[in-house]
């Protein structure tokens, strides 16, 4: 599968992930935090890599986020990422910070690198101290070759996710093949401004750190920050991109003729991971995409899209395959954006359901049958301008209630 | 049951409603919009009454809201309210406006009053034209004595509500007994800034219209606007207060020594209706109250309260009787209010679950057993100032999903 861009071709590789780029290895194991499933994973680069990160806007930032941000601030480089699942190390006070730092130091020692070159992150239950005995024993063993498998890493970062999320792309810059690979986990508390969403992206591009960070922020705003599962923004959200330069290209900056191509590649990776998180939202049966066009600004388009995809009434209607355009229109109407009721057009798939302030005649069974698909697209044209945005989410189901009435986050 | 205030005593009458004040009658009937249940109701005052209204902030205002607001603007008085359920007359374009006006005129003619003295409102399915034949036939008959029962009115305004919502209070001003009575309907699309929430309050107080409106806005912000069922703000929300002056008191204004007592009475009525709407939210099994204190402003307290009560994760945890303080803390943390993590204290009922950035030791079974009650109170102290606010909502259950995956709003 290839996607043409202005300057280049980007090859999308659905079965690749964080070890697609040169110089990365990844692994994972069961260290004992969870009952059975893998719960400790790593990515390691052969050489220190430029790093860019975006973090939750929740005031309660989990301990590992604090530790990682402080470490990255030192020289904007890391060489490794260590992740545990099953315990978020959030709301754990001073001891939580000490534990995150201990985890970081111990893994740095195993690797023989400086402590601040290791990023640590955690996802799972809030408010319980990390079981440091399990984690320390795990760190002692995890670099053994039996655990070194990209698949293990992708498994080890999951919580209530039902599947791994991965994607890879390749493009050519300065005659060199540049690879970008990603892995992520969802699946509840997802309404990022940065959810318990973790995203890890690796590339072998040689790229200026400040430009990488600018690109990540930009891309995150179009991708990870445009998904919602339940409107809850977690304490642990984090997306990290590592760029180790081993592709051997001239350093990429904003002024490089192929800059946009790289950013497009990064965006494809982040968007694919974001959509997979939305599709695998707790209890979800469908991926729902809201494409808003004709807005007077990008922010207005985003706000309308997020308002619709966040509506419990829209989400339950889609679960029930009910072509309930009234709830879509209502959610657009309370978004806070001054839309013009008589200009608004709404389509469910190819079926126009609302325009000029009135519902359109539809064959209910046709639209219902469209809604039975796993991927539902709703088009909203505000007819007020030239800006657009897309938001992704999922339906709201019995299983969402079941999972969350019993699972202790 | 009585409640002492600074100036007076307010007697609360749980079984009274809109005909408690002097000079009001109410009724309702089945006119054929719904299959069987009552669907057309009225309140009529013997004399024109000062009126104050608050309306949905949704950009898509339903036709009857537009017609009613225009009519009220003429002289800030009405003598009657006509309500239908089963059809919201929203997203119905020009014809919808004509239908709302026709309904208004026809009822005014039956009563022998000017058209603009009738407020009309509708609740139910969006985007279908009103069945004017049923409504017109209904209006022809509804003033017959067989339909004149307050109980009928309270029934006729319901949609997916499982019960009527009513309350009355009495207080004494200038030696005269003043009564205030109210009735309301919920129960989905409830996140007022004005939900499909309709509230009707009557009083026999003689009161200046502009002061009545100021009091209603103030009280609504503390009551109806502090409840949520699903975060969706409907196209049809409206609260109307009629004051016909038949109690014979000197005209109440802000300067009257008993002004605060009247406002307290109005607040009790609105708060009780609001709480009943929250408790009867679609599929709800519990009323959840979030009491926020220690905020640096009232707005901050409200924002934190609404953020917590709007969280699907908090709502499902309460349904599952799971003392999941982590979700409460998380929702406070993403509210946008700059709270201080180490100052925050959270209690579930009498059980303190979080302080100084850390969970408190609890006997899980005790808190679980508290959460099994029908009324759950969560206390959140921000310890940053002296302001407080209360928000109300309900749990999120299988039945919410069931109702909304199949019901066409």
UniProtKB/TrEMBL annotation, chains A, B:
Pfam family, one: ArgJ
Quaternary context: Heterotetramer of two alpha and two beta chains.
Active site, renumbered: 196 (nucleophile)
Cellular compartments annotated: Cytoplasm
UniProt keywords, alphabetically: Acyltransferase, Amino-acid biosynthesis, Arginine biosynthesis, Autocatalytic cleavage, Cytoplasm, Multifunctional enzyme, Transferase
InterPro entries (alphabetical): Arg_biosynth_ArgJ (IPR002813), ArgJ-like_dom_sf (IPR016117), ArgJ_beta_C (IPR042195)
EC number: 2.3.1.35, 2.3.1.1
Site residues (Cleavage), renumbered to this chain: 195-196
Binding residue positions for substrate: 159, 185, 196, 282, 404, 409
Keyword Cytoplasm assigned: yes
Pathway where this protein functions: Amino-acid biosynthesis; L-arginine biosynthesis; L-ornithine and N-acetyl-L-glutamate from L-glutamate and N(2)-acetyl-L-ornithine (cyclic): step 1/1; Amino-acid biosynthesis; L-arginine biosynthesis; N(2)-acetyl-L-ornithine from L-glutamate: step 1/4
GO cellular component, one term: cytoplasm
UniProt function note: Catalyzes two activities which are involved in the cyclic version of arginine biosynthesis: the synthesis of N-acetylglutamate from glutamate and acetyl-CoA as the acetyl donor, and of ornithine by transacetylation between N(2)-acetylornithine and glutamate.
Leader sequence segment: none
Name used for this protein in its record: Arginine biosynthesis bifunctional protein ArgJ
């Amino acid at each position: 599968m290839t996607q043409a861009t202005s300057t280049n071709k980007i090859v999308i590789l659905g079965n690749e992930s964080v070890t697609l780029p040169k110089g990365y290895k990844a692994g994972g194991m069961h260290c004992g935090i969870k009952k059975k499933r893998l719960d400790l994973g790593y990515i390691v680069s052969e050489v220190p890599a430029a790093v860019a990160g975006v973090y939750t806007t929740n005031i309660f930032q989990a301990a590992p986020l604090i530790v990682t941000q402080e470490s990255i601030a030192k020289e904007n480089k890391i060489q490794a990422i260590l992740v545990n699942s099953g315990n978020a190390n959030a709301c754990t006070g001073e001891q939580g910070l000490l534990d995150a730092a201990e985890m970081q130091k111990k893994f740095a020692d195993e690797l023989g690198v400086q402590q601040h070159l290791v990023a640590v992150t955690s996802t799972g239950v809030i408010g319980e101290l990390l079981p440091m005995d399990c984690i320390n024993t795990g760190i002692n063993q995890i670099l053994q070759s039996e655990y070194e498998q990209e698949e293990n890493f992708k498994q080890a970062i999951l919580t209530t996710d039902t599947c791994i999320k991965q994607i890879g792309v390749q493009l050519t810059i300065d005659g060199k093949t540049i690879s970008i690979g990603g892995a992520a986990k969802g699946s509840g508390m997802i309404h990022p401004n940065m959810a318990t969403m973790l995203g890890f992206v690796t590339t072998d591009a040689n790229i200026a750190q400040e430009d990488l960070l600018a690109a990540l922020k930009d891309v995150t705003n179009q991708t990870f920050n445009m998904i919602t599962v339940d409107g809850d923004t977690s304490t642990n959200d984090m997306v990290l991109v590592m760029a180790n330069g081993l592709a051997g290209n001239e350093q990429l900056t904003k002024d490089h003729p192929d800059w946009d191509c790289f950013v497009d590649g990064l965006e494809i990776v982040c968007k694919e991971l974001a959509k997979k998180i939305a599709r695998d939202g707790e209890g979800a049966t469908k991926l729902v995409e809201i494409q808003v066009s004709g807005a007077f600004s990008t922010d207005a388009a985003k706000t309308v899209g997020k308002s619709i995809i966040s509506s419990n009434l829209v989400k339950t209607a889609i679960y029930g395959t009910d072509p309930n355009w009234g709830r879509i229109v209502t959610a657009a109407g309370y978004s806070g954006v001054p839309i013009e009721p008589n200009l608004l057009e709404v389509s469910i798939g190819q079926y126009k359901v609302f325009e000029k302030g009135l519902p359109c005649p539809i064959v209910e069974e046709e639209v219902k049958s469209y809604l039975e698909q796993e991927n539902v697209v709703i088009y909203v044209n505000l007819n007020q301008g030239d800006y657009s945005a897309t938001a992704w989410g999922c339906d709201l189901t019995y299983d969402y209630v079941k999972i969350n009435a019993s699972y202790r986050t």
